[in-house]
Amino acid sequence: MTVKLLDRLEEQPADALLALIALAEADPRPEKVDVGVGVYRDAAGNTPILRAMKVAERRLLESQETKAYLGSQGDVRFVEMIKPIVFGEAALSDERIVGVQTPGGCGALRLGAELIAKADPQARIFVGQPTWPNHQPLIGCAGVEMVDHPYYDKANRAILFDEMMDALRKARAGDLVLLHGSCHNPTGADLDLDQWRAIADLVAERGLVPFVDIAYQGLGNGLEEDAAGTRLVVEAAEQALVAQSCDKNFGIYRERTGTLFVKGSSVRGAEIVLGNLVSLARTMWSMPPDHGAACVRIILEDPELRADWRAELEEMCARIRTLRGRLAAFDPRLDYIGRQNGMFSMLPLSPDAVLALRRSHGIYMAGSGRFNVVGLSDESVDYFAAAVVEQMAEPAYA
Question: Which CATH number fits domain 13-48+308-392: 3.40.50.1110, 3.40.50.150, 3.90.1150.10, 3.40.50.11540?
Answer without folding.
Answer: 3.90.1150.10
